[in-house]
């Protein structure tokens, strides 16, 4: 079995992070904990809702989730939400 390296979550502890999940869900919350398998605990978590007619479009609507455990198998990307910048898509 191939070893998977866990990102440096320690540097993100206490910061607001953005998590993209398998299936298109996206959430933000404050990283409060993690384990050796990559599961993370988010406090004050908010989910960004998608358009019911077009699942590729994020809406302005959100849903408060509170404290949430995110399993590592569902995580696609995690990044610091406060220091991230959006760049134009070079493929459009």
From TrEMBL:
Pfam families: LSM
UniProt keyword terms in alphabetical order: Ribonucleoprotein
SMART domains to which the protein is assigned, alphabetical: Sm (SM00651)
Ranges of residues in domain Sm: 4-84
Stated family: Belongs to the snRNP Sm proteins family.
Name of the protein this chain belongs to: U6 snRNA-associated protein
């Amino acid at each position: 079995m191939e070893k998977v390296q866990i990102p440096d979550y320690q540097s993100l502890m206490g910061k607001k992070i953005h998590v993209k999940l398998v299936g298109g869900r996206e959430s933000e919350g404050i990283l409060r904990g993690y384990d050796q398998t990559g599961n993370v605990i988010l406090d004050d978590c908010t989910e960004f809702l998608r358009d019911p007619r077009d699942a590729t479009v994020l809406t302005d609507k959100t849903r408060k989730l509170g404290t949430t455990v995110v399993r590592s198998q569902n995580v696609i990307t995690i990044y610091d939400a406060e220091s991230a910048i959006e760049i134009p898509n070079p493929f459009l």
